[in-house]
Design a protein that fits this description.
With about 110 residues, the chain is α+β, with helices and mostly antiparallel strands. Helix content is about 35%, strand content about 40%. Strands 2-3-1-4 form a 4-stranded antiparallel β-sheet. Strand 2 and strand 3 form a beta hairpin. The longest helix has 14 residues. The two termini are about 30 Å apart.
């Protein structure tokens, strides 16, 4: 019995940015370069974290990038080059389900 062909996996990159305009600039650049199929921006989030021994509170934007696992490393490298932070938050989340038709479109866009 043969194994079913495995499609490349989709991933979601979760990124915080200084503001909405930076999130849009980065997201659009990744889509234009075909490193991402799409991006979504949540314009205002409230972040808190420790830095230099102090609790920091910051208003940021949240950028959600949809790409393939195959293109993720390249997308992340490009993202780092476009980002204003020295150490940007970039989290990769594997997509394990969802709309098969949407995922097929996503993978085709970054092929």
């Amino acid at each position: 019995m043969s194994q079913p062909e495995t499609l490349p996996a989709a991933v979601l990159l979760v990124v915080t940015t200084a503001d909405r305009s930076e999130a849009e600039r980065i997201g659009e650049a990744l889509v234009e370069r075909r490193l991402a199929a799409s991006g979504s921006v949540v314009p205002m989030i409230h972040s808190f974290f420790y830095s230099e021994g102090q609790l920091q509170r910051q208003h940021e934007a949240l950028l959600l990038i949809k790409t393939s696992a195959e293109r993720s490393a390249e997308a992340q490298a490009e993202l780092r080059g476009l980002h204003s932070y020295d150490n940007p938050q970039i989290l990769e989340i594997a997509v394990s389900g969802g709309s098969a038709r949407y995922i097929a479109w996503l993978l085709e866009e970054v092929r």
